[in-house]
Structures are given as C-alpha cells and as structure tokens.
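Supplementary Note 3. Input sequence used for the single-chain structure prediction.
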Amino acid sequence: MSEQWWEIKVNHLPELEETISWRLQEFGCRGTAVLKEDDELCIKGYVPSVTIAPLDLSALTLWLQQDFTLAGVDLPQVSWRLINNEDWSSSWKQHWQPMEIGERFLVYPAWFEPEARGARLIIRLDPGSAFGTGVHATTQLCLESLEMRLDDNENSDITIADIGCGSGILSIGAHLLGSKKVIATDVDALAVKATKENSALNHIDDITVFQGSLGEVKEKYGQIFDGVVCNILAEVIKILIPDFASIVKEGGWIALSGILVEQSAEISDLLVEYGWTVATVWKKDNWCCINARRLPSNMRGM
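The predicted structure, written as discrete structure tokens, is reproduced below.
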C-alpha cells in the first residue's frame, strides 16, 4: 500500500503568502507550491498522513484564521484531501508552464521539451519539494537582479554565493550569465538535493552545493564573494545581515528577497547600519528585492 499524504490548500491574498508558507512549513509540510487556480491565488502544502490527524488540520485552520484576523483581512478558505504518494509531487505540475523572466531567462519545467526563444538562456527545473520554480515574484526579482549585475561576456572572474538555494534556480541563472564560480547552500537537505539534480539537468557540473547557511560559507570560503543572492524569509535575512560582510568583498553586492514591500524599510535600515548602501528596491506583487553594495571601509559612517 502506497504512503498517503495530506494535500492542504489555502486560498490567499498576495500579501499573506509569506505568512501562509511559513505556517505550512511549521506545520510540517515537506513541500509547498504557489498556484493560480480559477483566477485565484492559492498555496498547496503536502504532509505525510501518518504524522497528522484530522484534529491537527482543524488546529491549522484555526491558526491560519488567527493570522488573517491579525492582518485585518477576510478569513482564508482552507481545504484538505488525502492523495497517494506517487501523486503528491506531481499534482501541481499541470499548473506550471514555461515562463520568460526578465530580458534573458526562459524557465522550462523538466517535463517539457525546451524550445529556443531567441537568445534567451534556458533554465530547466524540477524543484521537487524545494522552493523556486520561477513562478514566485521573489524568484523573478532575483533573476532580474542577476541580469543587472552580470554580463555573460564579462564575468570570468565573478564569484557568487546563493544562500538558501532552494531549487537552485538562482545558482543556475548566475552560472548561465557567466559567473566563474557559484557556491550554493541551504539548511534543507531536500533543497541541496534539488539543486544538485537541477544542475545536472542543465548539464552544469561546477556549481558547488552543500548543506548549511552563511556561517558555513564563511568558514569554508571566507571573504571571497563578489555578489550574494539570498531569497528566503525576511525574518531570517534580518539575522544574517550582520554577517553578510564576512563573505562579501568590499565593493561587492547583495540581492535580498523574500521580503514584503512593507518590510523593506526595516531591512534597508539594518543594511545601512552594517555598512551597506541600498542602491535599488525593486517591487513586484507586494514583494521586493533589495539590491545593496558593501561600502569600502573608508566610506562607512560618512
């Protein structure tokens, strides 16, 4: 008998996407997918049925209702159903189609045969349970930031770190834009696995991937990076900001996303406090990407 999973579906407003994703992860969901069904946004999460009872699902609904009440919005529509193990990881695939991102990228699901579209760089992905399909606004913003920072004709000496690599989409994007060296890391073993598999899917064998976070990157590599991309929760980014300078060269840059527009001022102020200058804040669908540069030591505090 195949293992069964609970598929939990939450209809939502864009501004509560981060809250719902966090809540589902805290609940124990092994994977989440952001989808658009019947012109409505929804998030689906998947958790093994052996670990969760219907009473737990009722409690989750209550917690989500409390989150929405605190946010001052209408209560969410929450539903769930049992699906078989072989169905859970593919049930969302029918909603994901090839997507052009920015000026350079074309993201293709692994189960599609890619078709060339002009000079676009093709990224093939099967994210599994890892975050990063290209559908989410934060992923798009980070890829567009890489486009701005990298020119595939002039990056033979550029070294990039991808902190919280998820599916590996940003690492692959940096490589395709010509970065000499890409280091990808994530605290989630499934994300590390997904990044390795997606690198192979794109015939890339020189992205270094390991399980860990910024501290492990600092310990292994030190202050060698010209740029860092980090697309994770804003609360985690706030914890990491004091240490970003420990891995980024003076004059280097960071692109931070997973940040709601209303959180951008707090994150920007914290960056300035720790010796960064905020160059741009790009916005899309209530989310933003903060692009900042590390000030040389003789310019800090000026």
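The chain has a mean pLDDT of 86. The CA atoms of residues 55 and 91 lie 24 Å apart.
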